From TrEMBL:
Claim: Nucleus is one of the keywords in the record: yes
Family: Belongs to the GLE1 family.
Protein name: mRNA export factor GLE1
Alphabetized UniProt keyword annotations: Coiled coil, Cytoplasm, mRNA transport, Nuclear pore complex, Nucleus, Protein transport, Translocation, Transport
Amino acid sequence: AGSKLREVFDKINNLLSGKPVQTEGQTVSVTQHPQGLEFVCYKLAEKFVKHGEGEVSFHHDSAFPIAVVLSGIWELHPRVGDIFLSHLHKKCPYSVPFYPARKEGTSMEEYQRMLGYEVHDSKVEEQDHFLKRMSGMIRLYAAIIQLRWPYGNKQGAHPHGLSYGWRWLAQMLNLEPLADVTAMLLLDFLEVCGNALMKQYGIQFWKTMFFIQKSYIPRIEAVTSSGQMGCLSRLKNFVQKCLQAEEIPLPKGILTPSFWRT
């Protein structure tokens, strides 16, 4: 509910503003320790990324309520946004976007960590689980760049708005595609913020969609084996439908004005 989300936002904002906040039966304040504010900013940013790789990866719709709170907090407390990006980029290098190359002397285990895989006791997580986590983080990022906290003053620009999404898309299409990962990330990104990018960039956006269909999808196909076609097929269908309809559908779960009256 919108009212519940406002409560969450106010509590986080009050904590970061140095006001005492009630939690689990005790009162806490960042002023209780010289590094209190820095610690809270760090843990909060980390928590938002964890929501992306956990909650959002399983429930796509949850990207929007989480993102709108973070967007508002970022506006009022830029330090949280900066640390959020550093956590996100480390956990999901594709959010830069960046495909780390393996350097000489780097162990396979270390390299897999650089690619975003979780490695425990030399065991690497399964590909499906890895892709799900990356998908959740990209969806959260794609939601953040298009959302503003509706109760802010909105005098300044969005601290990390759609221009960053446009840049992400352009840089992504300049990278050589990876099997599995590239098709999934592009589809996630376009499903979540394609509509917002279409409204903002118009004809330039449609040129990019046409480029994806004619040039980039064949390049993804060239590196994709027959057993990895699922996500690529979904991306192809999505792009084709959008180009035919000359419209990108609104993302599922977007927060409507009526949400804030609940």
